[in-house]
Amino acid sequence: MAEKRHVITRRDFLRAGSCMAVGSMIGWPHLERAALAAGSSRVVLVRHDGVVDPEGQVRPAILAAMLDAAVVALFQANDAAEAWRNIVKPGDTVGIKTNFWGPLPTPPALEDAVQKRVTAAGVRPQNMAVDDRGIRSNPVFERATALINMRPMRTHHWSGLGTLLKNYIVFVPSPWAYHGNACESLGSIWNKPEIKGKTRLNVLVMLTPLFHGIGPHHFSKSYVWTYGGLIVSADPVAADATGARIIQAKRNLFFGEERPISPPPRHIEAADATYGVGNSRPERIELVKLGWDQDLLI
Amino acid sequence: MRLACLLTLLGPLIFMTAETSRADPLRQLGGSLPRRVNGWAVEGRDRFFDDKTIFDYIDGSGEVYRAYNLRGCLSRTYSKEGGPAIVLDVFDMGSAADAFGVFTHDTDGEVIPIGQDGRWRPGWLNFWKDRFFVSVTVQEENAPAFGAALELGRQVAARIPKEGPRPELLAHLPPKGLQTGTIRFLHHPVVLNYHFYLSDENILELSFRTDAVLATYQRGSGSARLLLVQYPDANTARRAAENVRRHYLPDADADGLARLENGKWAAARLKDRRLVMVLEASSRESAANFLRELKLTEGG
């Protein structure tokens, strides 16, 4: 074993009073440092009880209205057009990082809504692209000056949760190199020069989140529910931490007992504490709640 | 004449294809699987993946199968009008030990007498048999689909001619209080950390050349978690033991026991090529007892 920094063991977490082994979101050994260094982050949670119809189909008009309401609240703008002009400028080249995962992809209606709004803000269509697995060879992403990141939240085999942070794993040539220790180092991807500082908006899709996974494909319709929400923020860590709290609450409710997300989504805390990407602690998150408030879970 | 020439040219190729099929246990099994089950019929062609292309098929957990020496995966979908799709995945793990190992990665569910150690939970049937790990996923559960999934599982199990032995290392686990559903057989540090987070470095020097078994015990009101690792050689075992002493149990007493920060006890002991760890025990006495019991079965 290479001689290097202090090896972090289970005992470090026990020493910090952490319940990491049972999935707590607190107790990361380096968290205090980041908490002192960072300001707070605004996160908007917007919900609508009719955004998903009884057949499970997304209603595009309602989804677009939710997105508009969220960005207005996030940027404290007078209207959505003004908010989008804060997000992108006409001279920008915009990569819209989506997620194509088969059972639970980013809804095409959301991709359409974002593209229309980016275009309306003055970005030329040829300077905008929506992509997932192909971003490393996509010419728009190669010269992107701005990124918009959006994906559904779901439990994930290695990282505990499929998050906004994890959505950027395909920016690196060897994604599997980030699977160690429950994908703890995903936050480091966000500090790469070609990515750092470019993400203008994160949209965590919580319309029908997956709160538990089974089998090789980690999916069963038994473990999704209609939450009808979007979590929107400029801070991916704060958005992910908020989504994680909702998923954890749903698991506890569904199973009738404390059922920690497994493995614990350490990468969210590490993105805060180790990599300084954003805020994971609730006291550093200003959560704005809009719309449908039944079974909010947070 | 043309036909004869064509046969002459293609003959070796046809022979090779047939030979490959015969030599590849997964393709051989695939050829014998049922085409229809309870009204569900095969849709499309079988798809085959290897340890590199598995990521094209399974996003995320493909690495679990690679961590157990995946040789190949056959995927087949069964469909029925008005019914949910049923997906059959057969993983050839190359050995019974690794088929068992990948099965132990997730042992939740109701025990069901299909294959070896069959398990059912809403939407998923899985079992292992010989060198194969078999998964039957129902996209949306209903009674007919549930019945079809079970029947498909039974038929697949029946076409795998023999059962496989469990890894030899399991025989060294003390039987008293062993929670059999918690046994995990593994090689890879990422898999160990998934079940029991130990450290961010591979201090145990786990690799494809090491076998490890993790298990939970319940004795009265006391509980414990044990880890046994068998190394390919004594030098690697010694290095691992030294790493444990230095990074995990630097405060161990003369008997090799240390009190953890949560009040539980841990210990490690090396014998030849085997490292035994009591990862967590309710009391010092319990940890010492486990070490003693494990000592009886050391060796190898």
How would you characterize this protein structure?
With 298 residues, chain A is an alpha/beta fold. Chain A has a single domain, classed as Rossmann fold (3-Layer(aba) Sandwich). Chain A is 30% helix and 18% strand. Chain A contains ten helices and eight strands. In chain A, strands 1, 2, 3, 4, 5, 6, 7 and 8 form an eight-stranded mixed beta sheet that branches. Chain A starts with 9 loop residues before the first helix and ends in a 7-residue tail after the last strand. The model of chain B is unreliable at 12-20 (pLDDT under 50). Chain B has helices spanning 2-23, 25-32, 54-57, 62-66, 96-104, 143-159, 189-195, 234-248, 284-296; strands spanning 36-37, 40-49, 72-79, 86-92, 110-111, 116-121, 124-129, 132-138, 184-186, 211-219, 222-230, 257-259, 265-271, 274-281. Chain B folds into two domains: 26-159, 3-Layer(aba) Sandwich (Protein Transport Mog1p, Chain A), CATH 3.40.1000; 168-296, no CATH class. Chain B is of the alpha+beta class and 300 residues long. The longest helix of chain B has 22 residues, at 2-23. Chains A and B meet through helix 1 and helix 7 of A and helix 4, strand 4, strand 8, helix 7 and helix 8 of B.
Write the layout of secondary structure elements.
The complex is a heterodimer of chains A (298) and B (300).
Chain A: H1 10-15, H2 31-37, E1 41-47, H3 60-75, H4 80-87, E2 94-97, H5 108-120, E3 128-131, H6 139-142, E4 146-156, E5 160-162, H7 180-183, H8 186-189, E6 199-210, E7 229-233, H9 236-255, H10 266-273, E8 285-291
Parallel strand pairs in A: 1-8, 2-3, 2-4, 4-6
Antiparallel strand pairs in A: 1-7, 4-5, 6-7
Chain B: H1 2-23, H2 25-32, E1 36-37, E2 40-49, H3 54-57, H4 62-66, E3 72-79, E4 86-92, H5 96-104, E5 110-111, E6 116-121, E7 124-129, E8 132-138, H6 143-159, E9 184-186, H7 189-195, E10 211-219, E11 222-230, H8 234-248, E12 257-259, E13 265-271, E14 274-281, H9 284-296
Antiparallel strand pairs in B: 1-2, 2-3, 3-4, 4-8, 5-6, 6-7, 7-8, 9-10, 10-11, 11-14, 12-13, 13-14
